[in-house]
């Protein structure tokens, strides 16, 4: 949601939820006690992790998959007590009011309301594994302690249980979390039945979008202290004053002479990220140029072992629009662009072969 729409009471509740870890822990423990029997019945199976660098198309894929009858996703209604979705859903229901859709802060034409799906999984990671967040960036995790994995699985079960009684019986956890690209090895180890979905956007187009958002959020963070706090509390460190890059192999060395206010920096970030990811053989790649042109989501549903859902298919046909293009000339090193285009071509081939 737009933080400028938060009332003084909304802001106070947010500050209490994120600023009082003892109270948050007590609520979590109370939820465990009250819903122990219900949680014991929940099976977390075949979770879906939608991840990539931001601005790749992860939000679009989340919006579509969230409409599936089996999908369970975080939504703005889960704020600010993300870690206790069962209790918070019960408590907050009486305060629900209709909220008209409005454009999100990214100024990209995507509209949201209180029931829209959103990327709040990072709150769980901040709670369970704060050591992975260093001042210089987010560390790559090839493994995580068993207790962290259990905590994440427990959260998935809580989210699924919180949706019980809704239309149908949703039971597939679907999360969009850009930072999960730093954890695919760890997630695979502890969730061997998981699906990883990674959209791929043309590198120059993608880098230009990343730079625009970084500059935009830099302005927002400078003007609105609550917006800056909000983004930090929910673990959105992608842009602006809060920017903490994911520390992909080679990234620190290759960007040593670059600054985040340059296009070359973001193109280098793109190269490091997708060079790292392309080594994996367990990713479902989505070529966003082709996907937004054809608006065909049925192949992705099949890859995710999700039944074809008319609501999802119709939503894709009516809401997905082709990527309109990008500036084909930009102040980047020719060598960097050649490297990025080579990686992009290889990943689009992977997407075509699997889809």
UniProtKB/TrEMBL annotation:
Signal peptide: none annotated. Coiled coil: none annotated. Pfam families: Sulfotransfer_3. It comes from the Bacteria. This is Sulfotransferase. It comes from Thalassovita aquimarina. The lineage of its organism: Bacteria, Pseudomonadati, Pseudomonadota, Alphaproteobacteria, Rhodobacterales.
């Amino acid at each position: 949601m737009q933080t400028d729409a938060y009332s003084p009471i909304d802001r106070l509740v947010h500050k209490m939820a994120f600023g009082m870890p003892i109270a948050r822990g007590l609520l979590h423990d109370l939820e465990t006690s009250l819903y122990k029997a219900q949680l014991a019945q929940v099976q977390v199976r075949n979770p879906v992790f939608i991840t990539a660098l931001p601005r790749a198309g992860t939000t679009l894929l989340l919006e579509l998959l969230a409409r599936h009858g089996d999908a369970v996703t975080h939504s703005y209604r889960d704020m600010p007590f993300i870690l206790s979705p069962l209790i918070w859903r019960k408590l907050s229901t009486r305060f629900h009011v209709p909220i008209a859709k409005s454009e999100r802060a990214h100024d990209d034409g995507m509209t949201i309301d209180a029931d829209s799906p959103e990327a709040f999984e990072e709150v769980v990671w901040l709670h369970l594994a704060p050591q992975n967040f260093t001042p210089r960036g987010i560390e790559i995790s090839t493994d995580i302690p068993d207790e962290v994995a259990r905590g994440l699985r427990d959260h998935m079960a809580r989210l699924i249980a919180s949706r019980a009684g809704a239309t149908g019986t949703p039971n597939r956890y679907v999360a969009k979390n850009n930072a999960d690209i730093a954890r695919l090895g760890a997630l695979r180890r502890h969730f061997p039945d998981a699906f990883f979905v990674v959209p791929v956007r043309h590198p120059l187009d993608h880098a230009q979008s990343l730079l625009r958002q970084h500059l935009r959020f830099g302005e927002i963070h400078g003007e609105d202290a609550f917006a800056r706090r909000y983004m930090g509390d929910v673990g959105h460190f992608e842009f602006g004053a809060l920017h903490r890059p994911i520390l992909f192999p080679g990234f620190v060395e290759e960007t040593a002479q670059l600054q985040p206010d340059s296009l070359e920096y973001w193109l280098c970030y793109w190269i490091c990220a997708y060079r790292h990811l392309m080594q994996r053989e367990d990713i479902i790649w989505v070529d966003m140029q082709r996907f937004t042109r054809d608006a065909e989501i049925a192949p992705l549903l099949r890859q995710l072992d999700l039944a074809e859902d008319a609501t999802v298919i119709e939503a894709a046909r009516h809401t997905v629009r082709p990527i309109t293009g990008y500036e084909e000339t930009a102040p980047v090193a020719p060598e960097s662009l050649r490297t990025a285009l080579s990686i992009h071509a290889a990943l689009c081939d992977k997407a075509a072969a699997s889809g």
